[in-house]
Amino acid sequence: MTEVGEKSRARFDLSMPVQFLKGVGPARAKIFAELGVETVGDLLEYFPRDWNFVPEPTKINRMQPNETVTIFGMIESIDYQNYRRQPLFEAMISDETGVCRIVWFHGAYLRGQLEPGQIIMVSGKVTLYKHQLQFTNPKFFVVDEEHQLSADYFSGGIYPACKGLTSRQIKRVIAPVLEHLDDLVSEFYDREFLKKAELISRKDAFAWIHLPPDEEKLLQAKRRLKYDELFLMQLGLALRRYKVQHFSRAVPCDCSDKIDSRIRKRFPFLLTRDQDESISEIVADMSKSEPMNRLLQGDVGSGKTVVALYAALLAVANKMQVAIMAPTEILAGQHFLSIERYLKNSSVKRVLITGGLTGRKRSELLNTISSGEIDIVVGTVALLQADIEFQNLGLVVIDEQHKFGVAQRAQLRKQTTPHCLVMTATPIPRTLAMTAFGDLDVSVIRHSPPGRGAVITRWVSRHDRQKAYEFIRERLKAKKQAYFIYPRITAVEQDSDVKAATDEWEQLSKKVFPEFNVGLLHGRMPSVKKQQVMAEFRSRKIDVLVSTIVVEVGVDVPNATIMVIEEADRFGLAQLHQLRGRIGRSDAKSYCFLFAETDNETAQNRLEIMTRSNDGFEIAEHDLRLRGPGEMFSTRQHGLPDMKIANIVDDFDLLMMARKNAFEMVSHDPMLTLAEHKNIRRSLLAKFGDAIGLADVA
Ligand code: ADP
Ligand code: MG
Fold it and tell me: How far is the CA of 506 from the centre of ligand 2 (A)?
């Protein structure tokens, strides 16, 4: 095994395993690997989680009260006072200019460590106590031969450590590597850009993030490294997008005034401004020979289906077939029903493919699709991706509700190159729209159609449950309908406090609302049975629908104006908001009751936000803040590396700047083959590998 670390053997590069660094052997390399550090490159990007700044040493007679200072002094005397309420360890130290006192509360551990005659370095704030300057619980270390009289010992990064590897040990491994930054780090941008963007050099940034000379320089280092991280991510997205746009062809769709007015006649209402805007964006996309790749977002009930149907009819008018995909059979059925409503007496041929369809009937239907006879096919993603062939598929609409399936989109693209419209009911905060969905165009429906009654949300504690039941009884008597949502199907033994839909259904139907019809719906029921229960709820045969979260995915019963969510503290914000979207669909007032008892502060926060806001975007922003971008939306899940230093919420301005510059760079040099982009290209490939297809683009 060779050891590297001295300047004379500077020939090492970013891909070198850390094992060969000074102070690291096979055993320690394993621990480093647990921290995600395998190569010198990883090590350079293993950033401190915090930094210490120790001022230059001063003398005792120069100290001022309330200043943070560093001094060197000799211990004159020590005293441990454990008779006090707060035991303390006291030392008097002196230098050639004076004497001062140091106390450490609960300093028992210092006995045997500090002794008169030792030279120590002390750093911290001095305060005036009984007319004397004193340090209280300062940082310190005993100066011995090994440690020179230097403030560096305290200064610099504190690394995220783990068992078997302390921050200080990590620091000692990194320090010699920093001597070789000239060989290891190459600049991405020219001087002019750095100056304009007020960014320091990449090399300084790596040096200063690990060993910042002062706080100002640390900030500059952070800014530069954050920018680079965001820039590389955006570059990856820009390239991915470029590839889709330029290496696949779609059939352009014409939208004449005649086609437009014929489509609009299908809707028994005027479209909202947001719907109109989304439609013009979609029409512009579909008129190109690059496949559309658009995300349509808007709250449940905001009118996305109408927009999607417009796009579908536009494709049909251009003699193309359309596939509309939903995540579940219930939702697919729902889409089909609403399409039927709008397309009554239309010559457009549409079918719903269900799981129950088998044998001859199924193969006959598939034949009509592959012959091009059918215009619009509705079904679940699974069904439509299985074995269905289209004659000329021009548009795919994917309703993902709140489950974003980028993988599914990728899969579809292989089949053909239809235009693609993804709908989602989870409002995506702007930050995420630019990162996780950064390679899609986005249309937003922010305002729901007019004539929606207010939704009032209340967080109900145990004592008020009975009152809530009585209130609901009154609404039911007035012929309104209600949802009761539970976290699980049946009570599981190890978690028996979880209300279970099946058990509660008995309770509700027999004890609480015996005078009403209480129906049950859950995910494990056969699909025929589910359809039947839904139909009964829709036709008002069922007054109260007890359900697990299956109703989340697309049920449209405007007469249902009450929703009870049991154990609401177990649901996330996005989910609660989704569920609540099932009510408030008519002009009547709706009521959402969140039944929950919890001490958990985050859960309480969520419930409070729900009672305060009905705005999906506001809720999504809160969600992002409560949970952090990582948890809400793993970027890795989308083929992007996780962020090491940048934070898409806090560093939004840098993100915007990086995005603009990255997309500009790709539009000028789509393969990044220009000499001046060599270093960026290399870093990008190292980071993303082939995930962004840079290799096959070039
Ligand atoms: P989403 O798909 O976003 O959940 P939908 O398209 O299903 O929303 O629309 C929800 C309800 O609003 C439907 O009953 C639909 O008929 C109605 N709707 C949609 N657009 C309008 C509009 N512009 N004016 C009035 N009602 C509308
Ligand atoms: Mg819908």
Answer: 31
